[in-house]
Structure prediction request, 207 residues.
Amino acid sequence: MERLLLLSLLSACSGGIATGDGKTDTEDTEDTEDTEDDVPEVETECDDQIDEDGDGLLDCDDDDCDGVELCLWPTEIAFETLIQYEASFLASLAGYSDCAVHLTAPLVRDREDSCPGCDRVYRGEFNFLSDDCPDDFARPSDGGYGVRFDTPTSWEVFGRVEGEWTSLGIAEDDGSGTLQIANIVPVDASGVDGGTISTFFSFTPVD
Prediction:
């Protein structure tokens, strides 16, 4: 009798023995197989900060992303700029004189900011190496730059001008791995020639 009862119970449970989660062992096995099937064998996105294939390596650190273009873009840039003001004759009569500001900054990728037409945005705090300009000369404490990587040796760089992203020009490799831009703009003091401001930007990929 006990044997028949046991066989009856086993027959009734032919779908599998129920486990603590309310599922049969067969269903649990199927769920595990489905979960394993859902994990891709390779990294499927190389810039989303997610380890899709579960090998402990994110994005460009994963060998699966070798050769992907965006993994060739730097995550940090050594930035340097020299800003020179040359006073016009009229500006010198008004008490202004030539001056210069020299600063550097480690620029790191800013994932929170975006720039239309840019591939990435970088930001950093400025370190003033020298500054002999008067107090009314604008001095930001930090800066952000958008970059479009046209080629490894030619980038279009953008900066915010009056709150709007504006092209600062094309940075070209000078042959040493540093990309440079030179801008010279006139200073318009209410219709009067105030002189010129020359800005020399240098961007050196670090990592």
User: Anything to note?
Assistant: The chain has three helices and nine strands.
